[in-house]
Amino acid sequence: MGSDDTRDDPAAGEETFHPLGEAWQDDLEDMLDDTEYDTELGMEMGRDAMRVTKGELSEEEFHERYHEDVMEEFDEDERPIASPDDVDEKESESLLSSLTGDESRREVLKKGAAGAGFASLGWGAVDQQEPETEHAVEDPGEVHMDEEDTQWGMTIDLEYCDGCLSCVTACNAEHQWDEGANWMYVLAYEDGNVESPEPDNYDSVHDFNYLVRPCQHCTDAPCEKVCPTTARHTRDRGGLVLTDYDVCIGCRYCQVACPYGVNYFQWDDPNVSEEELDPEGVYDYRDRRVSRRAPRGVMSKCIFDPARQDGNHGEQLIGTTACEQACPPQVIQFGDKNNPNSDPERYRDNPARARTLIRLNTSLPSPDELPSMLEGVDSTIEAVSESVEGLDEQSIALTTAVLITTVDYDEEAPPGDTLVGYEATILEVAEILQNHGIALESQEVLTQLDLTVEQFQGPTEDVDVANREEVAQELFEDYIDPPVNEYELLADIGTNPNVTYLGKEPGPNAHQVPGPTSYQEVGMLDKRQEALDDRTVGLGLRNE
């Protein structure tokens, strides 16, 4: 490694820099020791990449500090902050050759230690593999979202997670990662302030405290800053943080720089062969191999399904992920975080109303069948409640509350989003009821449905609409106990993650406990080291 004066900084003396704690950091260092790459360089770059996201070090200083050492270690420095003066023609050719499948790069793939999973809160682990025959995938055309305006992300409601692990098994079924390399991870925890029940003695699955952990797809991703080859990169279209399997050399510096511990290293030949993979699920619109399980010797992680977002599997799957679609309680909401009409933003903005839409969608009668169900029924709430299954007084009141609080968005909802469809169905039910003769927004009906306040006196046209909306919102919150807390994991790191959590945030002493459904019950592994034996070490919980 180069001279120390290029990296002379007081922060270099910090004993523990990684937010997941000292044990995690020590194991990362041991992991790099088992590779042919420079351990000290990887650890220091990981530390300083997080200093950049925190605003303690500029991008330019970071690049200059490590440029010579990266060049010496890797014979190239293609980090995105490199200036034209720093990249000569030879280096550019090196990157080009890697993008076109230069076999010499594969020859340096290594077999060393893997990384981890929250031994307690299980945030990570690692995986490795040989190049495979490339298959061209055509750009699906105009079905994709605007690549500059879209930011794919999630809102995850931990309060209504039931720990069923359906999201984990669905992710594995679609992407076929090896056992224990959990791109999506769900765990129950205790932290000294909150407790979870015993897995064989509980009243409700909702008595457990859960953390659902995909990759956070950070807007300012430190893992990208340390990659010498641009294998780890943020894609323009949708802001996805991806790994180009044909460019990755398996140095694992990205694993050190990730505050969340979500990277996996593919040790051996993957369980699923190349012939079993659908090329349209592997390559994105740029014809870069960024999806499904990684080849041997390559890093992988949760990817938010770029093949879906590119329309490779049809326009109906744009704006969806396998984990979201498989979630029975629908606590994972995926979509465009820049669009207020998208599922994750609608849910985050008003979780009580969003969960009401979800519940009503499954309980109300179908709008196609409702007119015939109302034939011969008097035009009163009492008559309808007695005659039509799924339309009791509470359901009619909630349907009216949805009608009162409907917002006209300037933006269209992304393809694949469900909340806008749920709302449309409920509004159709409301319209059918009104056509049947029940004036849902009349003073008389609002009073009967307990959707009035003291100011709601006199003719309907004098009613304060804002007050009416407030009462409707109170009804939602009486029906659904909404989460009171909203947070981003390790927000103080400055990575600007694109996953928003609703519910309890694990404290600094959080540790994993058995949940109501075990990974063994669903045919999965809880930790990667169970598959890799002593080649993977379990790591401790984050230390905030």
What does this entry look like structurally?
The protein has 544 residues and is α+β, with helices and mostly antiparallel strands. It folds into 2 domains: 1-10 and 17-337 and 498-537, no CATH class; 341-479, no CATH class. 32% of the residues lie in helices and 7% in strands. A 4-stranded mixed sheet has the order 8-1-10-9. A 3-stranded antiparallel sheet has the order 3-2-11, with no helix packed on it. Strand 4 (232-234) and strand 5 form a beta hairpin. Helix 16 (393-404) packs across helix 17. The chain is elongated. The chain starts with 21 loop residues before the first helix and ends in a 12-residue tail after the last helix. The model is unreliable at 2-6, 82-120, 122-145, 455-463 and 533-544 (pLDDT under 50).
**Main sheet record:** 4 strands, mixed
Instruction: Write down the overall geometry.
Output: elongated
> C-alpha Rg, in Å?
26 Å
List low-pLDDT spans. 2-6, 82-120, 122-145, 455-463, 533-544
Span of the ends, CA to CA: 31 Å
Helix content: 25-40%
Number of domains: 2
In DSSP terms, counting alpha (H) and pi (I) runs of 4 or more, how many helices?
A: 20
Beta strand count: 11
Proportion in β-strands: 5-15%
Which strands sit side by side, in order, in the main sheet?
Answer: 8-1-10-9
**Mean pLDDT across every amino acid position:** 83
SS-derived structural category: alpha+beta
Give a short overview:
By secondary structure, the protein is an alpha+beta fold. It is built from 20 helices and eleven strands.
Summarize this structure as a short list of keywords or feature phrases.
32% helix, 544 residues, alpha+beta, 20 helices, four-stranded mixed beta sheet, 2 domains
